[in-house]
Structures are given as C-alpha cells and as structure tokens.
Specification:
- By secondary structure, the protein is an alpha+beta fold.
- It is 23% helix and 41% strand.
- The protein contains three helices and seven strands.
- The protein has a seven-stranded mixed sheet with strand order 1-2-3-4-5-7-6, with helices on both faces.
- The longest helix is centred in the middle third of the chain and has 15 residues.
- The radius of gyration is 15 Å and the shape is globular.
Length: 140
C-alpha cells in the first residue's frame, strides 16, 4: 500500500471554518467558530492526499503564541496527523523565537498536550457546557 502524501501549508481563516465547525461545535451555527481576531492569526492546514484533514490557528503577541481552534476530522483522528501538525507548528514557533506557547485545552484532551510538554495551569473555565484549562510551555 502506498504511503499517503502529507503536506502542511498556510491557509486562510475562512478555509479553517468547515473543520472547526464539524469537529468542535457541530451543533452551533458556523459563525460560532469564527474568532473576532481571525484576520490577525496564521492558519495552517494538514492535507492528506490533497484533502484537508486537520487545522490550527496561531496568534503571536510579544513573543507569546496561542494556538486556537486546533482540530482534526473525526475519521482521521488517532492516525498521528494532529501530532504531526502541532509538532510542525511548535518547531516553526521555536525558529521564530517565540518564548511561550499556550492554549485553552478541553479537559479531556490534556493528556494529548502533555506529550508536547505543555503543562496545566490552575486556570479552568467552562464554555458551551465544556470545561477547559489553560496549558502552557516555555521555550529556552
């Protein structure tokens, strides 16, 4: 069997919306997954055989990067694509000299983020009936 062709590239914020909506908040309107500052971020997609399967949005302010709306289509979860995308973004941010990386993680996903040396903070909140915790990582 032939290995899939995997490409990670920068995309527009509007290109992230279908996956954000389908994976994160399918029961809400599409506008629910738009961010007010989407135009200020960098957005990336991971493509498997030319099909976009995972997305992430990154916002950098004062040497701090926050990634948001990180999602992989359900049928592609557990295959390593999200890991590949996030590791690629972490490497890119290190090259750019970012000192801190953080995210708002769904509580049930914290184990995944620990693999990337993100640590839980004591900042926990709830949105749309889902609990989140802020996780962060500092670079040397």
């Amino acid at each position: 069997m032939k290995s899939p062709t995997i490409i990670i590239k920068q995309i527009t914020s509007s290109e992230t919306l279908p996956i954000r909506h389908k994976v994160m908040w399918p029961d809400k309107l599409l506008t629910y997954v738009k961010l007010p500052n989407d135009q200020l971020g960098k957005h990336y997609g991971l493509f498997v055989n030319e099909k976009m399967t995972a997305i992430i949005s990154v916002f950098i302010t004062n040497n701090e990067a926050q990634f948001r709306k990180f999602a992989t289509l359900n049928e592609f979860q557990g295959l390593g694509y999200g890991t590949l995308l996030l590791q690629n973004i972490i490497d890119l941010l290190k090259e750019e000299g970012v000192k801190k990386l953080w995210c708002n993680a769904r509580i049930e996903k914290t184990k995944f983020y620990k693999k990337f040396n993100l640590r839980r903070t004591n900042k926990v909140y709830e949105k749309g009936g889902i609990e989140f915790v802020i996780m962060e990582r500092y670079f040397k």
